[in-house]
Structures are given as structure tokens and as C-alpha cells.
Amino acid sequence: MRKNDPLCEFLVKDNIDLGSKRLILFGTGKMSRIISMLISPKPAYYVDNNELKWGKSFCRRIIHNPETLKNESKDELVVLVASQFYGEICSQMEKMGFTENIHFFDGKELYKKAMQKTHIHIYKTLRDAWQVKDWRILFKNRAKKRKIYGPFLLFPPVIGNLSYFKRVALLYRFKKITRNVRCAHTQEQMLSFVNDLFRIPPEIEGCIVEAGAFKGGSTCKLSIAA
Fold first, then answer.
1. pLDDT: which is higher, 27 or 21
2. Is 60 among the domain residues?
3. Strand order in the sheet with 104-106
4. Cα separation of 6 and 4, whole Å?
5. What DSSP assignment string belongs to 175-189?
6. Is residue 106 domain-shared with residue 151, that is, in the same domain?
7. Among residues 152, 178, 179, 217, which one has the least CA distance to residue 59?
8. Total structural domains in the chain?
9. Are 99 and 21 found together in one domain?
């Protein structure tokens, strides 16, 4: 763990060395997502009191029942509570035998630090745009994201003879794959290929052969298209 890492700084103030311990995040809301983006190493898994979320994926990790923590060795865990209901969760953790500021911590401070970084970035972007009198700077990052994730969801490009709603649904699934799997292609390249694919007459038989899949992002998208 890097010395300048926010999680390291957060735990050092309580003299806790993460070392080989496993990091668990309690909560799967906005606070948890933002903290997950900020910290390293990433959590081993998440726990949440909402049973409808159990077994589902969140930030590339599985959400478990908080009762799972009982099966873990307390001295091998660091639990960060990333929820606005810290008081209730604190009582819940103590009933399971965990001690506050030894086994589990309030992640609100990390969340505030993450939000502060975001606000500083917005301020610097506005300041730079004002200084050079070029407001196109404000759209620079958006342009980069659009290159990666493709066109706006409500304005899908023409894809064969697909209807508008089918194109929106297809683009939505493509974007979801791009967010979760690193892709070597741009969304425009994939959409262009799929457009050509859908223009092949149905009576022509054949198969799609992918020569190299990298991380599997293109494979997922072609499987959906096929």
C-alpha cells in the first residue's frame, strides 16, 4: 500500500497497518462507490443489509450478507462502513463482536476527501477556462469519454434495420460492457462493424471469427449482436 494513499493516511491516524489484512466495505450506495474509486487496494468484497443485493456484483466485487463477517477472523479484517446509517451499522457490528476503530471504521472521512478532490478538479477546470477565455476546455473531458463510450444513449446511430428502441437497448448494453471491461477498440469502431454486420442479408450463411479478444470486451458485444 502506497504511503500517500488516502486509505493508508486514514488508517495511520488510528495506528492500523492494513498489511495482509482484507479490506471489506459495508454498504453499496453512492458513498461506497466513490470510496472504492479512491482507495487502493480494492475491497475483497462488499456487505449490505439489503438482501435483494446479495450475490450481485458491485464495482467488480460480490455483495454478501453481513452475517458472512462472522465466519472471518476479526484480526485479519478491516471493515470500512460506507453508509449514512453509521450509527445503526455500528451497533450491528458490535453485536457481531467487532470493535469500533479496531475492526471497523467510519468511511465518511474518506468520502469527504473524495468529494473535495472532485470539487477542486471542477474549480481548476473553470479557472483554466476563464484564464484562457476558452470554454471548450469544459467539454474536453466529455469529448474523451464520448470517444470511449460512444454517442449519447438517446441518439443511437443507424445500425442495420434495427428500430430506434432496439438501437438504444443495444447501445446501452455496449456502454455497460465498456464500463466494466477494458476495451482496445472505440465504441464507434464497434458500432460501425455491427452496422455492417446487420446489413448482411439473412439468407447468407456464415459465422463471425474474432482474431484476438484482448480482455473480452469485443467478444461480449459481438455475442450480443449475433
1. 27
2. yes
3. 57-58, 61-64, 45-47, 22-26, 77-81, 104-106
4. 6
5. HHHHHHS--SS-HHH
6. no
7. 179
8. 2
9. yes
pLDDT band at 113 (very low <50, low <70, confident <90, very high): confident
Give the whole-angstrom CA distance, residue 2 versus residue 35: 16
84 and 20 inside one domain? yes
On whether both 109 and 150 belong to a single domain, the answer is no
Contact present, 137 and 128 (Cβ < 8 Å): yes
Cell of 65: 450478507
For 24-28, 72-76, 132-136, which range has the lowest pLDDT when averaged over its residues?
A: 132-136
Identify whether residues 15 and 107 lie together within a single domain. yes
> 140-169: per-residue pLDDT in tens?
555 555 555 666 667 778 888 888 888 888
Amino acid at residue number 111: Y
Q: Residue 86 falls within a domain, yes or no?
A: yes
Q: Helix (H, G, I), strand (E, B), or coil: what is residue 4?
A: coil
Say if 132 falls within a structural domain: no
Domain that holds residue 76: 6-113
C-alpha grid cell for residue 58? Answer: 458491485
Is the same domain home to 98 and 58? Answer: yes
Question: Cell 467487532, residue?
Answer: 98
pLDDT of 17 higher than 80: no
Give the Cβ contact number of residue 105 at 10 Å.
Answer: 21
| Residue 64 domain flag | yes
